Amino acid sequence: LELRLWPNDTFVEFDHGINTGSRLSLTPHAPLRENPLMALMSRLFRYDPVFERCLVDDAGHITLGSKGFHVAKIQDVLMKVDGYFPSKLELTNAVYGPTTTAGVLAYKRKRRIINTSYQSAADGIVGKMTIRSMDNEMLAYEARHRAQIGGAEL
What we know:
Elements: H1 2-5, H2 18-24, H3 30-34, H4 49-56, H5 69-82, H6 88-93, H7 98-111, H8 128-148
Helix pairs in contact: 4-8, 5-7, 5-8
């Protein structure tokens, strides 16, 4: 069961042990966990249904006007990975406003994240390709910072 829930290279902390994994595997998002190529792996994004939906469903993309903890996570990535700080108002209220949109657009331009099947330039939306990129970069960021503090959790 453990190998089915978590691939060999997946770190599982105590709080997300076998009982949590079993419960999560019964959620509507179970197909993502059964396919490790689809699952989000960073501590910031994994097991978050908003981002799991974003990864597989166009209607789940995060856009201008969105509000909530998921927006704060995107803002966190922009600050940690790119050193970009959205406005204080947007940060305080976890709002995907104009400065967060500008940060996402800069993030996507820097990494050339464009779906060439229908786009010729990057946009300010967090969709499938963007969330995958942010997840990969946060996974690397978390690993670097865990190593810097002697393996302790972030």
